[in-house]
Structures are given as C-alpha cells and as structure tokens.
C-alpha cells in the first residue's frame, strides 16, 4: 500500500517536474529522515548539489520545501522525489533511523542537517562542553584541526580538543575577541599551531582568486560540497536577511535573488 496518493501529487505540478522528481528518487537523491503519523520529513539533494528539506503530509495533504521553486510555484520536483521515495521505501527502516538519532534532536533542525551532510556528531556548544565529547569520539587523541568562529567563549576548549601538533584556526569572534594567547599555552596543549588568518591574504592576486574559486566550484559541481539552502529572498530584503542570520535561526544559506527567472526549476 502506497503512503502517498501519487496521482493526487502528480496533478499539483507540471508533468515534467514530477517525472524529474521520480528520477531523482531512483538515483538516490532522497534521504527519508522522519515519519510521524502522516508526515514525512526528508532531505533531498538537488540537481546541482544543493540540499533541501521537504515535509509532506499523506496521503495528499500539504507539503513544503526549502527550495526557491516551491516558494515561487507552490510545488516542486523535490516534493515529487519524496513522494516516489516514500512509496518505494521500507518505512520501518525510516523509523529505525529516527531511533538512531539522539533523543530530543529535531529531525529538521540545523543539527540533523549537519549530521546528514556527514558530521559524526553535532554538538551545541552552549549546552554541552564539546571538549570531552571530542576526546571521547577520537579515542582520547583529539582532532587534527579545529576551525573556531566563535572566539572568546570557545577558543581554549578548541585548543584542548586538538591532538599533538594539531592546528587551531581562529576565523571569527561571534562571542567576542579572543584575549592574547601565550606561546607557552601552545606548547602545553601538545605543541599545537595557532593561526588567525585574513581572507585577503589568501586571495591577494588574481591567480589566487581564480584558483580558489575554481577549487570551490569544482567541489560543488562534483557533489563533494553540498550547500544547504534555508531560504531565498529578493535583493531588496537584504536587511531582513541580515536579521535572520544574526538571529541564528537558519538551517543553511540565505540567498538574495537578484533577478527572477520563471524558467528555472
């Protein structure tokens, strides 16, 4: 018995969108992460590597998607992909996946999305002391590199999470500037290395900019880099976009749309 009414969902969108969604499901682009009564939550990898969150209510209820196409048209190929994947799936396995996730973890949260993208464990640093957790996950050795964008509140725990001769990269200060680090602290942390880079020093020449941009987009095109899109807003909503990001309520990138192209799906 199918979970979703396929024909009802097919009638909601262009036939080509639906067929494309079915092909995406067959290609393994859908990850069903939650089944709650008649609601399915899924992560769908788009055609160019973007990762979208889709929620659908069975058998033919409402549905949402974080992609720009849904915002524009009210339906999208990613929804069709989830309909196809859910109808073909062993939904018991979906429930098993839910059980494997930590108690209390919202399946459509930023933490779940981070783990879907490949992280072994997402840790809320304001709620848990990540340093002993990192040590435990690495068998007591620590990690090779820490990238710290928080600053004052986390930097010493970041340094303590490194293995011998590891590297701590500080690239932000959302909690405030980091006070001076004494050289002896680096030695006592395991002869670690510490750097606070400026982006401008890594793209100082045209060749460096082209090279780094080429590496970035190559990773994106090949699927090695996944970009989670939280929402898309028009360019004149830039102030709103900054407020959303400063409120730390996003589950991915906030994209400003410069021009509209109704032919893009």
Could you describe the 3D structure shown?
- Helix 9 links the parallel strand 6 and strand 7.
- Among the domains are: 100 residues, no CATH class; 84 residues, Rossmann fold (3-Layer(aba) Sandwich).
- Strands 1, 2, 3, 4, 8 and 9 form a six-stranded mixed sheet that branches.
- Helix 2 packs across helix 4.
- It is globular.
- The chain contains eleven helices and nine strands.
- 25% of the residues are buried.
- It is 37% helix and 21% strand.
- The chain starts with 5 loop residues before the first helix and ends in an 8-residue tail after the last strand.
- The protein is α/β, with parallel strands linked by helices and 265 residues long.
- About 2% of the residues have low confidence.
Question: What is the count of β-strands?
Answer: 9
Approximately how much beta-strand content do the residues carry?
15-25%
Largest sheet: 6 strands, mixed
Compute the separation of the termini in Å. Answer: 30 Å
Arithmetic mean of pLDDT = 84
Give me the secondary-structure category: alpha/beta
Percent helix, as a range, is 25-40%
Return residue spans where pLDDT drops below 50 for at least 5 consecutive residues: 101-105
Give a quick summary of the entry.
The protein is an alpha/beta fold. The protein has helices spanning 6-10, 15-26, 68-73, 77-88, 91-100, 110-116, 130-137, 155-160, 183-188, 206-221, 238-246, and strands at 30-36, 39-45, 50-57, 63-65, 143-148, 162-170, 193-195, 227-234, 253-257. A hairpin with a 4-residue loop joins strand 2 and strand 3.
Keywords:
Rossmann fold; 3-stranded parallel β-sheet; 21% strand; 11 helices; 9 strands; 265 residues; alpha/beta
């Amino acid at each position: 018995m199918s979970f979703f009414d396929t024909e009802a969902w097919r009638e909601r969108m262009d036939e080509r969108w639906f067929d494309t969604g079915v092909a995406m499901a067959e290609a393994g682009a859908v990850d069903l992460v939650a089944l709650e009564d008649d609601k399915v939550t899924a992560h769908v990898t788009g055609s160019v590597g973007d990762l979208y969150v889709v929620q659908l209510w069975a058998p033919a209820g409402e549905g949402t998607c974080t992609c720009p196409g849904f915002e524009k048209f009210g339906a999208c190929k990613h929804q069709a992909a989830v309909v196809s994947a859910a109808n073909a799936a062993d939904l018991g396995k979906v429930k098993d996946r839910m059980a494997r996730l930590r108690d209390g973890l919202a399946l459509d949260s930023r933490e779940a999305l981070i783990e879907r993208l490949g992280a072994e464990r997402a840790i809320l640093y304001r709620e848990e002391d990540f340093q002993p957790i990192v040590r435990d996950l690495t068998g007591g050795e620590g990690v090779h590199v820490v990238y710290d964008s928080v600053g004052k509140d986390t930097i010493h725990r970041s340094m303590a999470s490194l293995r011998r001769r590891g590297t701590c990269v500080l690239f932000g200060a959302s909690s405030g500037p980091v006070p001076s680090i004494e050289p002896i602290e680096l030695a006592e942390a395991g002869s670690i290395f510490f750097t606070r880079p400026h982006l401008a020093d890594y793209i100082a020449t045209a060749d460096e900019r082209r090279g780094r941009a080429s590496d970035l987009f190559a990773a994106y095109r090949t699927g090695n880099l996944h970009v989670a899109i939280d929402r898309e807003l028009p360019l004149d909503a830039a102030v709103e976009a900054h407020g959303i990001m400063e409120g730390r309520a996003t589950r991915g990138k906030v994209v400003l749309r410069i021009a509209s192209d109704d032919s893009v799906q």
